[in-house]
Design a protein that fits this description.
Elements lengths: L2 H19 L13 H20 L6 H12 L13 H16 L15
Helix pairs in contact: 1-2, 1-4, 2-4
Length: about 120
C-alpha cells in the first residue's frame, strides 16, 4: 500500500489517540515525582495500540529494537530511535501527536537521527 494511501489511516489513528486522551482521568492528580512514570505508562500503551493498528510492516529491526530499549529504560533514553522509512516516520509522527496531547514535552520523545 503506498504511503499516500496510508496517510488518512494515520490521521484517523492520531485523531483516535487525541480523542481518548480527553477522557476523564483520576479523581486526584498524580504527584509530580510520579509524572515520568505516568508519561512512560501512557506512551507504552499508546505505542502498543499504534503498532496493533498500523502494523510492523516497514519498521526495521533497528527501529523496533531501539524503541524497545527506550521502553525498557522506563522511557529515559532520549534520541536513540531514528525513523528512516516512511512507515517509521508515520509511526513517530503519530506518537509525537499523541504525546503532545497527553502533556508530554517534545523532549520526552525518543526520536532523533544522527547528523550525516
Amino acid at each position: 500500500m503506498p504511503v499516500s494511501s496510508r496517510f488518512p489511516n494515520a490521521l484517523l489513528l492520531g485523531a483516535a489517540l487525541i480523542a481518548t486522551s480527553a477522557l476523564p482521568g483520576r479523581a486526584q492528580p498524580a504527584s509530580p515525582e510520579n509524572w515520568p512514570a505516568i508519561k512512560c505508562e501512557r506512551y507504552t500503551k499508546a505505542y502498543a495500540e499504534a503498532l496493533s493498528k498500523l502494523g510492523r510492516k516497514g519498521l526495521s529491526p533497528d527501529f523496533l529494537n531501539a524503541h524497545e530499549a527506550f521502553l525498557a529504560s522506563g522511557c529515559s533514553i532520549r534520541g536513540e530511535v531514528c525513523p528512516r522509512s516512511a512507515e517509521e516516520l508515520n509511526l513517530a509522527n503519530v506518537m509525537v501527536v499523541m504525546g503532545m496531547n497527553q502533556g508530554m514535552a517534545s523532549t520526552f520523545m525518543p526520536f532523533a537521527c544522527p547528523k550525516r
